[in-house]
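Incident log, support desk, overnight shift.

02:14 A customer reports that sequence design results differ from what the structure should imply. Their input is reproduced verbatim below. On-call engineer (initials T.W.) acknowledged and began investigating.
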């Protein structure tokens, strides 16, 4: 007997960072400009995620900083004449002020006529950048198919018209994730009277785009970043090739992936450019005792989540059922810290 699959999707949309580190100190003459950071959770660090709003678990974390000096407020138009792609090593995971960079810059003494706009990105000079412009412009990024080599691409909010008295003279960046966080889970909510166990043998996702250009620009004296959507790749990701039993409660499958934001195309798994999952699983029956193995291809598209968006968390929950029932999807869009959802039937 061939079992149908229940494939559930919970999508949680990050609403950005909600707090910043507070640092105060006394200002002296000709003080060097120092930097701190706050990052929305979680942050990629090698093959694991850092649970928290800082870089403390990242070995020797570095960001790249740009800065522009103007003599009037609201005069920044996207150029950088004060700091040019300066690599800054963070201290204390970004929670402590850092002056760990070459050719120190100092705050101008006259805060009434000198206004500095700062911007930064992470990771610093990473190999996943195919092209890095001189300041704002087009940044080409390629997602690594090896999850242990993936990095979390983040851009900071532009800090406009800062002076030596802004935040006690410390430049405190807030970073936002530009990729999509993807994770898969498996469970068996109902085995049925004739089924003793169900095991997931492997899970693979196909036709995933891995390269695109994200454009940064200045709009109304503020930083704007946007993916062009000209994605390419059609790469296959082996999420798991390890057998695991589907239990009543959901269990994670494989690692957390950082994926390129992209449209999830509507169609069947055998159509070109349709992103889909290949699911291999085995059902063991008790009347009489025997096992049957199945391979299913399930599109990743749903009516509620038709694209992977920047700064978004998506959990795919695969429910392997021992009784015949239709394939349906559940979807939820909320913050990364809370999830609740609804269910609808896909005919």
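02:41 Re-run completed on a clean worker. Output:
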């Amino acid at each position: 007997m061939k079992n149908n699959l229940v494939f559930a999707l919970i999508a949680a949309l990050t609403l950005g960072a909600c707090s910043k580190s507070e640092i105060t100190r006394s200002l002296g003459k000709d003080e060097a400009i120092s930097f701190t950071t706050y990052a929305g959770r979680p942050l990629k660090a090698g093959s694991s995620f850092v649970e928290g709003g800082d870089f403390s678990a990242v070995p020797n974390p570095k960001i790249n900083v740009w800065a522009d000096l103007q003599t009037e407020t609201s005069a920044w138009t996207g150029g950088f004449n004060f700091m040019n792609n300066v690599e800054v090593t963070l201290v204390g995971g970004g929670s402590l002020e850092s002056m760990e960079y070459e050719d120190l810059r100092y705050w101008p003494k006259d805060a009434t006529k000198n206004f500095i706009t700062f911007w930064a990105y992470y990771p610093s000079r990473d190999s996943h950048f195919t092209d890095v412009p001189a300041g704002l412009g087009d940044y080409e990024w390629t997602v690594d198919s090896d999850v242990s080599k993936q990095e979390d691409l983040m851009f900071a909010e532009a800090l406009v018209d800062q002076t030596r008295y802004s935040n006690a003279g410390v430049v405190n960046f807030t970073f936002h994730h530009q990729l999509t966080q993807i994770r898969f889970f498996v469970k068996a909510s109902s085995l049925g009277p004739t089924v003793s166990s169900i095991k997931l043998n492997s899970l693979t996702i196909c036709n995933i785009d891995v390269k695109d250009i994200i454009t940064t620009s200045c709009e109304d004296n503020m930083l704007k970043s946007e993916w062009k959507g000209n994605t390419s790749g059609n790469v296959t990701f082996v999420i798991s090739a390890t057998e695991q039993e589907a239990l009543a409660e959901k269990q994670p499958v494989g690692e957390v992936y950082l994926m390129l934001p992209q449209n999830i195309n509507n169609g069947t798994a055998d159509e070109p450019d349709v992103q889909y999952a290949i699911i291999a699983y085995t059902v063991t029956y008790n009347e009489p005792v025997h096992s049957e193995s199945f391979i299913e291809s399930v599109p990743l598209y749903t009516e509620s989540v038709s694209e992977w968006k920047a700064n978004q968390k998506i959990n795919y929950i695969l429910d392997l059922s021992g009784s015949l029932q239709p394939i349906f999807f559940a979807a939820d869009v909320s913050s990364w810290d809370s999830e609740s959802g609804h269910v609808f039937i896909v005919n």
